[in-house]
Specification:
Number of strands: 0
Shape: elongated
Number of helices: 2
Order of helices and strands: HH
Oligomer: single chain
């Protein structure tokens, strides 16, 4: 029984070691963006998020106004 547990433990350790090595290997192949590109894309994401947020706010305000107008007409 002790031999089976040792073998199982070795297999688990080998899986962990292999996973760690493969992860390191993949991270070495990644092409990381430059600082300027990162800043430019971050600003773009923030601007697009603000524009979409503004559009959603305007749409929500219009529907809220229409809903309250409709409810006041019914009462």
């Amino acid at each position: 029984m002790a031999v089976a547990k040792d073998t199982e433990r070795d297999i688990q350790e080998n899986i962990l070691v292999r996973t760690f090595r493969e992860t390191r290997s993949e991270l070495r192949q990644v092409v990381w963006p430059s600082r300027e590109e990162t800043i430019r894309l971050t600003v773009l994401v923030i601007v697009v998020s603000l524009v979409i947020g503004l559009l959603l706010f305007i749409g929500d305000s219009i529907f809220t106004f229409l809903y309250t107008s409709l409810v006041s007409l019914v009462q």
